[in-house]
Amino acid sequence: MASRPKKAAKKAPRPAAAKVAPPPADAALLLRIADALERLAPPRAPDWDETAADAFAWHAEPAPGWLEAVPQVNAVSINLLQGVERVRDILLDNTTRFARGLPANNALLWGARGMGKSSLVKAAIGAINGKKAHALALVEIHREDIPSLPQLLKILRKSKRRFVLFCDDLSFDAEDQHYKSLKAVLDGGIEGRPDNVILYATSNRRHLLPRDMMENERSTAINPHEAVEEKVSLSDRFGLWLGFHSCSQEDFFAMLDGYCAAYGLKIDQKQLRAEAVEWSMTRGARSGRVAWQFIQDLAGRLGKPLKPAR
Length: 310
Known about the structure:
Elements: H1 27-40, E1 55-59, E2 66-69, H2 85-99, E3 107-111, H3 117-131, E4 137-140, H4 149-157, E5 163-167, H5 178-186, E6 197-203, H6 211-220, H7 224-236, E7 240-244, H8 249-263, H9 269-283, H10 288-302
Parallel strand pairs: 1-4, 3-6, 3-7, 4-5, 5-6
Antiparallel strand pairs: 1-2
Helix pairs in contact: 2-3, 6-7, 8-10
């Protein structure tokens, strides 16, 4: 009798793998990670109050940039600026027209060091605001922040106030391409410069670029004339070119007399002039800056604070 084949033994089913619950989150660890991330993240730019002051400083970082109110501007009275009467009157007239909502030009103040270029810009705005409160607001931008100008103009365009955008000691080196951003802002671009903004800049260079840089462009370019024209066209975008030159000895003495009268410094005029000449010779120059430095020294020796005399 044939034997029946044995049935294969059924394999026992494998037990289901036990589900392992994830470990509970460590709340303290997560909080520390969140705090670390917040410290690494750039701080949030503060909100801008356009009525907080009559002067602001532009900061390009953190992006997209922000405006810091400057409660007190380091400025002198426009009447104390001697030896620059012609350019003073031109700039003051241009700024006054802009404050009234009339057409006005961007201005480039160029020339000798220490002759009051930046002082004149601040003094002109102070004089206008002295006649009509809050007529103008000064916004200072540093040369290295020029590429962020479009973002700044975007903010100022929305304001109802009128702004003088001020860049002190503006110049460019051979490897610096920021001047192209400035060219586009002054006249180019689709939107152009806002009607409520005007740009004043100071520089020791009339064309904002060193002579060797312009000569290098002329020698290496296929069309030397066109290469130089591109560089020079930056200063051409300023409607006003106001030149400042080294002052004469008479102007130097006039500056000193004005400061002494304004701050009540009592000194014999012959002694004042003799000491001032000696001071200027040690500095190798006569200028408004040298005159002011002498006045600070004189006031210290006389024990007088530099506060306007009543």
